[in-house]
Design the sequence.
């Protein structure tokens, strides 16, 4: 309860008491008034204030408790929502990874000439390299996966802005091509660590 509310209760009660005391001073002896009447009036004022204050204080305590309870429930809801979103994205990532693994395994069936004359096949060694890359626990972003006629497997990332990142995996090396903000970049003979850094940097751009 606010200080202003308590002051208002005291003020109203005191006014009523003073009106009563004014009448008494006109009819009672002064000694009796100071020794008996005024102490009694003081006690009545205190009781009245206490009687009016206690229900308000109890109501305030109830509101405080209910607010605390609501806050706990809100925190629980936020935590549950956070966990639900996390599980959702983990499931989406897992589904994409499984889809990519299935695609890459199917590339083993691509023999020379699979996409026209001069097209090279996809070797088991190459598919295993690609499978290991897709299965990396630290690969946060699953790519779109395609076979090429150059005996390689291509991983692609593309944003709605048009920014594009391409990783091409060969049996003996890895290359990178990107076009970001109309700036073309090409790299060759990259390590897995370097490739992961480029993928993360690509997705970190806003």
Sequence:
């Amino acid at each position: 309860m606010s200080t202003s509310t308590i002051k208002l209760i005291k003020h109203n009660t005191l006014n009523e008491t003073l009106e009563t005391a004014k009448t008494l001073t006109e009819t009672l002896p002064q000694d009796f008034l100071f020794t008996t009447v005024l102490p009694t009036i003081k006690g009545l004022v205190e009781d009245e204030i206490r009687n009016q204050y206690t229900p308000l204080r109890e109501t305030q305590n109830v509101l405080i408790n209910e607010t605390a309870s609501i806050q706990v429930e809100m925190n629980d809801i936020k935590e549950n929502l956070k966990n639900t979103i996390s599980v959702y994205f983990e499931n989406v990532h897992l589904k994409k990874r499984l889809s990519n693994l299935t695609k890459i395994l199917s590339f083993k069936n691509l023999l020379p000439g699979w996409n026209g004359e001069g097209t090279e096949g996809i070797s088991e060694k190459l598919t295993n390299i690609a499978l290991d890359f897709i299965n990396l626990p630290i690969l946060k972003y699953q790519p779109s996966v395609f076979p090429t006629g150059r005996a390689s497997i291509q991983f692609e990332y593309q944003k709605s802005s048009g920014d594009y990142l391409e990783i091409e995996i060969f049996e003996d090396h890895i290359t990178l091509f990107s076009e970001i903000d109309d700036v073309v970049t090409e790299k060759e003979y990259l390590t897995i660590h370097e490739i992961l850094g480029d993928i993360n940097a690509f997705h970190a751009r806003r």
Notes: The chain has a mean pLDDT of 80.
